[in-house]
Amino acid sequence: MGSSARIKRLSADLQPVMEGERPAFVKKTLLRAVRGCWDFEALMANEVMWLKRLAEFRWVPRIVAVEELSILMTYCGEKACLANLPDDWREQAERIVAELASVPCSHNDIKAEELLVLDGRLLLIDYQHATRTREEHLILRRAGLSGCRNRVPDEQAIIGTLARIGGQG
Ligand SMILES: Nc1ncnc2c1ncn2[C@@H]1O[C@H](COP(=O)(O)OP(=O)(O)OP(=O)(O)O)[C@@H](O)[C@H]1O
Ligand SMILES: [Mg+2]
Fold it and tell me: Which of 5, 52, 115, 151 is exposed most, by the fewest CB atoms within 10 A?
């Protein structure tokens, strides 16, 4: 398949698995692996690696099972919005930023869709584009090896996105 058939998204089948009334898990499935463009299987393997490395933090989804083309992980809530944004969002966000830096981990693709809220807790998902440092990510991007669009570093992306959601941006 040539570059004209570029697919920019890692398509995900994210039907929640219910436990009684509540969603408990989601399964993120790689639906289309396209050669000659981004290596989607490598992106999925990268996400699994970072979910494991970050497993000690409560704002990270837990892996339940990894299959060849899918990751079953714990449900992390709804996209952050004005209605569910916790009052202490800035404190929670600063903790996420500090703990990411402590690993170190650069997420590289933080946007509103990646910031979820569950029972007043902020969670950060989607680690397929994560690297150890922002510099590593910029090298990959300059080499045409990263498809993610986020132009700003994690701290700015998290705080800026949540401030906009909260009407303070
Ligand atoms: N653990 C989770 N709990 C709850 N919802 C989730 C979870 N993981 C993903 N989602 C939902 O599914 C959407 C897509 O997931 P994710 O961003 O991981 O997939 P993606 O294919 O990488 O998407 P994109 O390329 O658009 O970033 C998220 O924006 C979120 O709404
Ligand atoms: Mg995403």
Answer: 151
